[in-house]
Design goal:
This protein is mainly alpha-helical. It contains 4 helices and 2 strands. Keywords: Membrane, Transmembrane, Transmembrane helix.
Length: about 140
């Protein structure tokens, strides 16, 4: 673009009596801020889903073990690491399911790194949401 075309474009977008260069600068700034806000939203959305999925995967063995222990307690059964003790509920033996759920707590050994990743992602997400947007007072563009 030549300088004349830029000035024509600026004067066409400016209102009557307005500074044409100021109108162009504010339009460019608005588009830039919108693009940055959209990128931040996409990044936060990705961080949120990553943190949520890693939390579910990382904490699932502990939740399964706690639910199995609570169910065994509620039904008056005993569950431990040694073997599956018979547990009859409404005529069905659920001891294998309770034992499997309880023993899944040992999988925390393997999912501990995923838990650390999920905690890190939640912290990054919280910090990124606390920062002011670039166009706010005290933001990146001041």
């Amino acid at each position: 673009m030549t300088n004349g075309k830029i000035n024509d474009h600026c004067s066409n977008n400016a209102g009557p009596g307005a500074d044409p260069c100021l109108a162009c600068r504010s339009e460019v700034r608005r588009k830039t801020v919108t693009r940055h806000a959209s990128a931040n939203h996409s990044r936060n959305k990705l961080l949120f889903w990553g943190a949520l999925m890693s939390s579910l995967i990382g904490w699932a063995p502990l939740l399964a073990g706690l639910i199995s222990a609570a169910a065994a307690s509620a039904f008056g059964c005993e569950v431990n690491e040694a073997y599956a003790r018979p547990c009859m509920v409404m005529g069905a033996d659920i001891s294998d399911a309770l034992y499997t759920g309880f023993m899944s707590m040992f999988l925390l050994i393997f999912t501990a790194p995923v838990i650390v990743i999920s905690i890190t992602l939640w912290i990054i997400l919280a910090v990124s949401r606390m920062r002011p947007p670039p166009d706010a007072p005290g933001g990146a563009n001041t």
